[in-house]
Amino acid sequence: MSIKHISRSLIILICLLGASFYFYETILETVPAAMINGIMRSFHINAAKAGIFDTCYFVTYAIMQIPGGALLDKFGARKIMPLAAISCFIGLSLFGLTHDYYLGLLGRFIAGLGGTFGLMGAMFIVSSWVPKNRLAVALGLTITIGLSGGLLQGPLVNFVHQTSWRHVTLFLALVALLLALIMIIILRDNPLRKTEKIIIKDIIHVIRSKQNWWIGLFGGLLYIPTGTLASLWGANYFHAYFPHITLSTAASMNSMIFLGWIVGSPVAGILSDSIQRRKLLLGCSGFLCAIILMIMGQMQNITVPMMFFLSFLVGLSSSFSGLTFVMGVERNPASSGTAIGFINMLAIIPTIIVSPIFGWILDHNWQGHHHHGARIFMLSTYQQAMKLEYGLIFIAFLIAMFLIKESYSKKT
């Protein structure tokens, strides 16, 4: 079948469907921030164990990146993506129904298995259909659509309060099942895409590249504020900073990190293509993100509007890490799915490590306050944990400046 027989409208719809699943997966990543207090009460756990709940999702997410990318290279998105959505349905159903902590972890683990293909699947679909000279912008727009799911934190908090975190989880499970059905009907693979026959060889090639390691590590360090604050602790942190605002307002403030990603991702792609540079923008974004987090974590008397803006800037500066996926495709053109998966695996590992450490710092400095069975942490406690954040982001800046090499080529 020739690509000429596939209409442009269908190609756009296919790319939007991939981005929609990424949008949904972003909700799965961030919804614990709206549920965290209810989860801690339901399972009678502390902050460290709550962090493990969050980490468990990302562990599966990280483990499956390389094999997931290889599966996409081998079988294509049409066969793999509906199975990913079904995995989310099974995992969320288990998580929402069980009262056992370890079964809850298993549910998050299974949901993470499907969530693996959110970002990776969307980027694979786009890179399969979009010409290389428009790839940075197209991937940036994909990230914009996908991360828009993070803007729903405020409404999700209200939804949880009106029902319960379990009802919200089961509702999301049904959404996953609906997405699986739509994918079966609409999703197509590019007929010009070459099916990779030797998966192991490509995996080894991708893993042996030092640049892939540095690119992925940079992306992972720059994602830490999104993975730990925006996805889990941010709403409670902002509520501790401004105790007079509602938790829903604090969640909306937290979601500004995702708004920053939404605005910044296409801007990063357009700017990068315009100046024909990737590396320089990575270094600038890492430095800016570290400074902003330091201000947020240590400055006193920040106003509510200013904190909304700073939260937005954290997401805006972090969003430039999306260029790492463009660099991965540019450096590994024959195995783009595997490269995207490998870089995304490295990008999630720092969050897996830092999230429980962040929770441990909160528990270690906890002053004994409770609210309806959930631990309440003082602002000073969060500020101690925030030092870990901007310290690691500064390391990302050093990696970008001294270890990452430029990948842009006019030939691409």
The level of helicity is over 70%
Order of helices and strands: HHHHHHHHHHHHHHHHEEH
CATH class: Mainly Alpha
Q: What is the 3D form?
A: globular
Number of domains: 1
Strand order, main sheet: write it out. 1-2
Q: Helix/strand/pairing class, anyone?
A: mainly alpha
- Average pLDDT, all residues: 85
Molecular structure report:
The protein has 412 residues and is mostly helical. It has one domain (3-402): Growth Hormone, Chain: A. It is built from 17 helices and 2 strands. The chain has a two-stranded antiparallel sheet with strand order 1-2. The longest helix is centred in the N-terminal third of the chain and has 36 residues, at 8-43. The two termini are 26 Å apart. The relative contact order is 0.16. The model has no long low-confidence stretch (mean pLDDT 85).
